Structure formats: structure tokens, C-alpha cells
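Subject: complex prediction, re-run

Hi both,

The earlier run crashed halfway through, so I resubmitted it with identical inputs.
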Amino acid sequence: MSQDTDKFFRIISQLDELLIPGLGEGFWAARPIFAEMDRAFLNGWSICRLEEMLHGKELLVFRDRNALTINITKGYAISLALIGEPPPSLFLYPQHYMARNVGDTPLKVRRYRPDRPMQNEIYDPQLRLELRDEITLAPGEMVERDGRSDVLDWESTGSTGYALRLHSEGFGHYEWAFDRATLAPSGATVLDSFSSQVTTAMQMLTALGVPVDRGFIEAGLASPYFHVRWETVRMIGQLAPEMSEEALERLKDDPHPAIRRAVEKTRQMNAGRQAASN
Amino acid sequence: MLAGKLRATEMAYSFPAKTNPTPVEVDDFIDAARRAFKGDNSVEAMEAVTEKFQGLAANREYIRDALLTELKRIGDERHNLASFAPQSFIIHRAPPFSLRLNLWLPPVGSSRKIEQEARIYSYQKAHDHNFSLLTVGAGGPGYNTRVYEYDRGTIEGYEGEPVDMTHLEDTSLSLGKAMIYRPFVDVHVQLPPEAPSMSLNLLIEEKEIVDEPQYFFDLKTSTVVPMNDNEVGRRVSFLEAVGHFADENCASLLFDVARKHKTPDVRAAALHAIRTAFPERQPEVDAQARSDGHPLVLRETASA
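This time it finished cleanly. Structure:
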């Protein structure tokens, strides 16, 4: 064991103790710990994982787009982002982070913020991002992202840059994408993996065209996730049309405006069909 | 056997849908697969059980129940953060066999969603497999695919390496149709379906080939594009990063990986990390690469 591996394990242990699920804004109490997360920390991580690799153990490093996971729990995550050209879109991800340039070259970071209050669950096509700040992050320097309002756009103009990030737990279900030219929203992506799998299963069952039991439908209608309730209604239309009216009645006061609008529209269409058939 | 057997063919390994297939129970299918698979004949075994597999895909109640059971299992084990595969369900495990249900979506929704799904499904990205795959259309019109074949033995696997591919067929995985993708032989590019579709897949895990790298292929230039998010790719990405943070303790471990790891891509990446972190140790890198002898590893010598 080297000093760096000791440091790696000590810091992970401290973070495990501090960053428990449900901490919310308490995440920022990890600043003094993050201050110690430097290249030596990364060297300690490297040694640990190399030893695991040599001993034929499962390598606990995963690559998600341009980031390698260093540690992930329900309360926080640590990643090493590989910085190159900026992606085609800008993204607002509902998660705080602290980030340090741990590479050898300066990185450009642009900070955007929405021009009005926003709710993560309610998609607002009128919202626009505004460029608030543009900095050059020298090696060793750090920056913070407020996940409720900040879009940070990273760029390395030369070789691949490296940013070490300490992420909070997520506090929203959707990542918003924005068009880089117009700064307008271009869509939202579901972040919760299980709810995403539920909607996948619903789409599969719809493609299969085979009846499903009422309990599954009930669970879908009662889901806390907007996209699951939405997909449930679509599934009912295909697999259990006899339940459509009951589902519309239950969702007419849904907290999400998009579902309320869809219920209203469907009822108007049904009424129109009824009138035509009479 | 690393590379699958090449055969003289002008079409992909395809089996038309059966008219009124008899639904098959999963246990009957797995029994048939066990009888057919002798340990090193995955493609032949899959051919032998294709008709039964089409029958299993026709057993819609089984697929529904298996899907909902797996969904419940995932819900009960949500602490397993690394197991996320949003559009795929493993609905039966009977080593070395596993059955997987995949959803294929048309490109609708946000750009990020389309990009994410394209990445998950390798839409528009030609790739080979390091496992044998029997697949059957189980719902919807099915994804479209363009299939090529190549000879794995003729490439080393470095980025931009020219590869000779023969176009076999453009087709789709329509309802009830079955296809076999041969490991390290078939290259295919998937194109999104017109409407949500589903496939049922049989995978056979063959220990001697599963650690070999899969590749993407650039069809415009007929060249190799290494994958960075699979088992080999994430090791290579990790080692590349290590090269920027390594100290002397790391260096000896990197040399150990370069000497001992069974995958040449990983051995080459370990030497590349040493070159990055300790340029003064290039003569040792050269010596290790020459001792290794694999063409991918030899590319890390100073003269390459």
C-alpha cells in the first residue's frame, strides 16, 4: 500500500460517511474533502484498480460517454471526465458537482443559466439559456455546478483534458437538452433507470399485443413518474381499451399539465367520435 | 476457436418466419439447446434449434410473464447501480445460455434520447460480436440491418486498420423471422424500425472468445474503429487515463499488466500508458513489445 492508496481509501471512507442519500444541499459540506482530491488521489485509484486487474477481479471502472466512474453509491458519485470538443448540445443535469482540472492543460468552461424559473419535471419550450460566465480553468483549479440552474460546457482545445468530479445524488428525473445555437430546449431524457425500464416493458407488451393484468396497469397509473403514467395511458389504449375511460377519469387532475392536456384532448376526440356515430 | 467458420455465402444466416408456429415452452427449448451445444459449435447448435426458437417467440404469454417477472426482480434489486441496460431484459438464465428480450425504437423524441438509443443499439454503427447470437422477431415490423462478413484472422484491430468486408444482404428482422450472427465473422449495422419492435435473442457464452474485443467498422472507409464502452474498451480507456496520473508504483503494475494480461489490446494500452507517463522508459517498452510480438503491442515501440 502506498501513501496514495491510503489517501484514496481514506477519502472514499469519508465521503461514504458524509454523503448519505437524502442529504440534499448538505452535499456542499464535502468541499474540504474535495479539496484533497487531487492527482495523488487519482494515482491511488489507479494503483487499486490495476492490482484488481492483475488479480483477475472485476474491474470496477465503467465508461459512460466521456467519463470513467471512480466510485458510485446512492448518495454520490466520483467520475473522471475526458474533455475534448464540446458535445453538439448543451445539457442541464439535475445534480450538483464540484470539479477540478486534473490534467496538464487549461480547460475552457462556459456557464449558462435559464432565463426564468424552471421545474425539472415540467418541460417549458419557451425557456432559453443565457451565457453567464466563461472561464479558463488552469490545472489544479476547481469549479462548482449548481444542478438546479447551471449548464457547464467544457472544452479542451488541445489534447484530451481531465476533470475530476464529485457529484451529488440526483434531485430530478429528467436531463434537459438545449440547442447550442438557439439556446432553446430540444428535449428531455429520463434519468431514472428503473422507471425507464418500466416504460420499456410497457412498449414491449404493446408490441407483443398480449393482455396484461390490472395490477400492472394500476401501478403504472399511480407511478410518481410523469413518463410512466403517460406510457400507461398509451398502453391501455392498445391493450385494455375498456379501461380507457377509467384511466382518463383518474388522470384528469394529474399534477403534470401535459397529462391533463392529453386527457382533455382525448375526451374531446372521444366526444366528437360519439357525436359523429350518433 | 477464435474466428467462426467462414462459408461461401451470399446472404446472412436467415430463416423465414413459420406459418402458424407451434408455441414452445422455455424448458423444452433449453433442453434442445443443451442437446445441440457441444461446447464449441455454437453456430451449428443455433441452427439446430432455430425452429424451436421461433416457436418460443410465438409463445407470447411466456414472453409477457418472463418480462414482468424480470421487471419485478430489477425493481427489487435497484441497489445494483451498474446493471442498467434500459432497452434490454434478460428473461431467462441457464448457463451457458441466456435469453434476452430487446426493444427497438424508431428515432423519435429529443435529440439526446435519439443519440442515447442510437448508442445503446449501435444504430448506424457497423459492429461484429464476440458471442454467437440467434435472434428472432417477436413484435412489431422489426429493425432493418445491413450484413457483411469478414475474416477476423486478417486484422490486428488497431484504429483505422483497413478491413476487407463482403456485403451479404440488406434485410429486416420481421415478426417470426430468425437470424444467426456468427462471432467474429458477421458485421452488421442496425437501422431503426418503422415502429416499436421487439426481438428475442439466444446468447451462448463461450469463455474462450468472450474476452476477445468486438470492433466497430467504418463502412465508408472499410476500417476498424475500436469500441470504448465494452469490456476491453473500458479497460483500455482506464489505462489511457492512468498514463496521465501514474507514479513509480503504478509503473511496475503497468509493466505487470503488459506482461500478463491475456488481451493484446490491454497489453498494448498498458505500454502506451507507460510511454505517456514515463517517456524515458521507452527502451523498456520497446523490449517488452518485441518480447510480446503481437502486432498491436508492437505498435507501441518507438519505431512503429
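The mean pLDDT of chain A is 90.

- K.
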